[in-house]
Design brief:
22 strands, six-stranded antiparallel β-sheet, 19 helices, 2-enoyl-CoA Hydratase, Chain A, domain 1, Pdz3 Domain, globular, alpha+beta
């Protein structure tokens, strides 16, 4: 009896083994993830066991993860733990420290600006001030990447910085209590004399929507009649923040963007809501080749829904959505999980099959300047499918958002490019503010508009700047300098203004020589026609 039971158990076990083998064999075959992981494990163990030198195992693992993600697409990436801290600060929109923007000029930490509302501003620290010591230790010669390690720290802790103020020849110790410092994503927001408002967003981070709304409320109180929204150089960020900003301009029940994954075929739609405040505000969006991702969600929706005009140059062309996954050691990785589509159904992702270097270098844009509202300038291209806006205008998918009005920046002369590249503008304006800052503050006080109208870059100042350039081995060609003289003088004046009054002052002067912005201001009648808005 016992032997019969043993026989049946043996037969049953063999049968189960066959069945299990049939079902699980594919999962452990050479093509299975499990088998491939074992292959990696074998190599890694053999390296640790037999390699000629000591092995940095964490470094090897990071290299393997990096290589694995690079095989997927240009935007699936590994983020080391140290870098991840900075990424979190950037997207969270704040850090804890003393609240200054700085640069290292001739081996010395130089304050570019004290951040509004931060502890340094409250103590009267000014642009141009130089940090000589930090907590009594010499700071001259400190590497730029080491400065934040000394100045940042937990909220409520103290740091003593010794500051030299060139204009007054003062050296003083400032006992600064670190605090939470905002990282602003709205670079500038102001209204000019005719009611045209300008608002520039540098990225879409956690606080961007709140910043945007606070600035829009202020602009409304200051008489805003129309808006130029500048997304040039904005690489993107949180999609949800971009969607909320678009919603402020769009009437309810309209598609702003949708996402879809080819694996799951699940589609997620993001719709506009009723009752937003700026649905009737005339709008123009500025783009260039540095505008990507969330910037293209905003501009793509505005264009597809015929809500306003897009002006400038064709954007980057990033139509992939990433999700970030944290790892146990503080590092993280971003994985592309979906594609996003504009309201007309456009996928604006540029091709990336020729490698990451070619992808980021991008294609040469052979765009014809001028009116492109019907997109008749676009060269017929079978790889770029045609879509229609809500009013029936043609737009193309693939390769970014093409503007409704193409405006290219003028090419700068080589002398000008060398002057900019070697920081001559910064060096000259820093010295000028050091020498004349107190005089300028006494003369103009808070009256920036008076400065804007009255102050001029004199021939003497311009010649001094060129002499400074020659000393830094810039080959100054007079004919090239004459061609770009207005641009160079505008750069000098705007930098001086920034040192005295901050970013809004800088932009108001810099935009006087901004071809794209100046053209955009003339196109509001066409933007209102596209949007079917009446004059206000």
């Amino acid at each position: 009896m016992n032997s019969k039971r043993k026989m049946w158990f043996t037969i049953l076990g063999l049968a189960l083994g066959v069945l299990v083998g049939i079902y699980i064999q594919p999962s452990i075959s050479g093509d299975s993830p499990y088998e491939q992981f074992r292959k990696f494990e074998q190599v890694f163990n053999q390296i640790q066991k037999s390699y000629v030198d000591n092995v940095d195992s964490p470094k090897l693992i990071e290299a393997a993860i990096t290589g694995m993600l690079e095989e997927l697409d240009p935007h699936s990436v590994y983020i080391p733990a140290e870098q991840q801290k900075r990424v979190e600060e950037d997207f969270r929109g704040s850090f804890e420290g003393i609240g200054v923007e700085f640069d290292v000029v001739r081996d010395t930490i130089t304050i570019v600006t004290a951040i509004n509302g931060g502890p340094s501003e409250a103590l009267g620290i000014l642009a141009g001030d130089k940090i000589l010591k930090i907590d009594g230790n010499n700071a001259v010669g400190m590497k730029r990447e080491d400065v934040p390690k000394k100045l940042r720290g937990t909220k409520g802790t103290h740091v003593v910085v010794t500051i030299f103020r060139p204009g007054s020849r003062e050296v003083k110790d400032y006992d600064i209590v670190r605090d939470k410092i905002p990282l602003y994503t709205v670079d500038a927001a102001f209204v000019d004399e005719d009611g045209t408002a300008y608002l520039a967003i540098n990225r879409f981070a956690e606080p961007t929507y709140d910043e945007f709304m606070a600035n829009m409320d202020r602009l409304s109180r200051q008489g805003m009649k129309r808006l130029v929204l500048d997304l040039r150089g904005n690489p993107g960020g949180y999609m949800e923040r971009a969607v909320r900003i678009v919603d402020e301009f769009i009437s309810g029940g309209k598609e702003i963007v949708y996402t879809k994954s080819s694996r799951s075929e699940e589609r997620e739609d993001y719709m506009s809501e009723d009752g937003q405040r700026y649905e009737k505000l005339p709008l123009i969006v500025l783009l260039n080749q540095g505008s990507a991702s969330a910037s293209e969600i905003v501009s793509g929706a505005i264009q597809d829904l015929d809500r306003g005009l897009v002006v400038g140059e064709t954007s980057f062309g990033k139509g992939l959505v990433q999700k970030q996954y944290p790892l146990t050691d503080g590092s993280a990785f971003r994985l592309t999980v979906a594609r996003y589509y504009t309201p007309s159904g456009r996928l604006i992702q540029r091709p990336y099959d020729k490698g990451k270097e070619a992808y980021y270098r991008g294609a040469e844009q052979d765009e014809q300047e001028g009116d492109n509202i019907e997109h008749t300038h676009d060269v017929p291209d079978s790889t770029k499918p045609v879509y229609k806006t809500s009013n029936g205008r043609k737009v193309l998918g693939g390769g970014g958002i093409t503007p409704d009005y193409v405006v290219k920046f003028d090419t700068l002369q080589m002398t000008t490019r060398d002057i900019i590249r070697k920081n001559i503008i910064w060096d000259f304006t820093e010295k000028y503010i050091n020498d004349h800052g107190q005089e300028l503050r006494k003369k103009y006080g808070e009256d920036f508009q008076r400065f804007r109208k009255e102050f001029q870059i004199t021939d003497e100042m311009f010649s001094q700047m060129l002499e400074m350039a020659k000393k830094k081995e810039v080959d100054v060609k007079q004919n090239e300098v004459s061609t770009d003289a207005f641009d160079l003088k505008t750069r000098l004046k705007s930098r001086i203004a920034r040192g005295l009054w901050g970013n809004n002052a800088f932009y108001q002067i810099a935009l006087e020589d901004d071809k794209q912005y100046q053209k955009a201001k003339t196109l509001f009648p066409e933007a209102m026609k596209i949007s079917r808005l009446t004059s206000r």
